Amino acid sequence: MKVYLDNNRVTPVDPQVLGAMEPLLKEPYGDLHALHWAGAASRKAYNTALEKCYAALHAGEKDTIFFTSGSPESNTTLLMQLYTRQILTGRKNSLIISEREPLSILQAAAWLEEQGVKVHRLPVTEEGIVDPESLTDYLTPRTGLVSICLVDPESGAINPLEEIVRICQSYEVPVHTDATWAVGKVPIDLETLEVDYLSLSGETIHAPTGIGALYARKDTELSPLIFGTRSAPERYRGGPLNLPGIAGLGKALELASDALDFEMEDARELRDALEEGIAALSGTQTLIEWSRRVPNTLLATFEGVESEALLYELNRDGIAAFSTTVHPYGEWVRPSLIERLGLDPALKHSTVGFALSRYNTEEEIDYTLKHLGKALEYLRSFSPVAPKENA
Fold it and tell me: In the chain, N or C terminus with fewer CB closer than 10 Å?
């Protein structure tokens, strides 16, 4: 059996999403502005997808949503326009982010810092979230932007973004959130969540990789990162449109919005079953209180076991999970969540996460628990720091 529990990175494409994309993959489509049948078909597909995005996010008709290759491009677009339009002109001089932001934000912020921009990185609390009050230590009239992800990409912890927005509004500082790990897991209503900018990616909501979007509230400043188009809203992102991907993203957002309560209740039940099973194993601990994280995510420590070894053993049995310290492309750049939560630093390399989707089943959870127990028993049999009862 193969069990995929790494759904906070990439999800399988939903058949309905594939169905929305298929006509555009089989038939030629034209430029949106072309005065022929192919152009008309493209405009219809584009507008349909855009309408679904607006509806799913409850965006206002005067707000802007434009499509990108994913949240890294959306995030980079926003931070580069902050630099060119506000930092270089001397209007603003600083940026506030959380230390747990996605890699694209952290790397862009590091680049801005090299250019002389003041970057303040907010630590997370022992609950794994940003304390809104910590913002007041750094907010000034010259703060250009506050960027805090809605959901932590590893732990699934949900940041108190509405309170963060209220504080920033009192200082007249715009707020951006990367909602890549929140869409389809928690309700997102931009009528009440009054962020100025929002990024998202398709690969975490059962759309294909390589497609995402950037939302900008009306009257906010925005500049393109890529030039080469001539009309709104696509003027903000030049180059040929990935129309099949756009159609897929629109459908995925529609599905994520319409079935949110039902699907997340199912995911929560399966996650809770997995969590209860893990808690029954010796030398384990779940991170982040369940009520403070999205319903599909579980992060746990396994005493006496290296996370890389545990991932390897699970993979041998066809189980795909993830680690907060093991990454195929090099070292993580985020501070250790273990240390921020006040846990034993020795557990930093003993943490494994599981992220569920609508496709997981009870049978898969039972299978995972069975083989997780076997893997722990095997690895602890020769571990010098294993719990005594497993030594």
Answer: N
Specify whether 43 is located in the same domain as 131: yes
Evaluate whether 190 touches 175 at the Cβ level (below 8 Å).
no
Residue 161 located in a structural domain: yes
2 within a domain of the structure (yes/no): no
Handedness of CA 13, 16, 21, 27 (dihedral sign): positive
What is the arithmetic mean of pLDDT over 363-375?
98
Among 258, 285, 308, the domain-final residue is: 258
What does the pLDDT read at residue 326? 54
Q: Which residues pair with 98 in a beta bridge?
A: 122
My answer on whether 293 and 236 are in the same domain is: no
Write the pLDDT tens digit of every residue in 23-60: 999 887 778 888 888 888 889 999 999 999 999 999 99
- H-assigned helices in the chain: 15-26, 37-57, 71-82, 103-114, 161-170, 243-258, 260-279, 307-316, 337-340, 362-380
Rounded mean pLDDT, 290-314: 94
> Quick check: 339 pLDDT over 90?
no
- Domain boundary (258, 285, 301) is at 258
Same domain, residue pair 103 and 250: yes
SS3 of residue 298 by DSSP: strand
From 51-60, 92-101, 221-230, 291-300, the region with the lowest mean pLDDT:
221-230
* C-alpha distance from residue 262 to each of 185, 259, 376 (Å): 11, 6, 33
Q: Say if residue 238 is in the same domain as residue 265.
A: no
Q: From CA 137, how far away is CA 232, in angstroms rounded?
A: 38
Q: At what angle do helices 243-258 and 15-26 cross, to 10 degrees?
A: 160
Domain that includes residue 230, residue range: 15-258
Query: What is the number of alpha carbons within 13 Å of residue 227 lying toward its C-beta?
Result: 2
Cross-strand pairs, 96: 120, 146
In a shared domain, residues 49 and 127: yes
Strand partners, 320: 4
Look at residues 178, 183, 147 and name the one whose alpha carbon lies nearest to residue 74.
178
| Total number of domains in the chain | 2
What's this model's pTM, rounded to 2 decimal places? 0.93
Return left, alpha or beta for 156; rule: phi > 0 is left, psi -120 to 50 is alpha, else beta. left
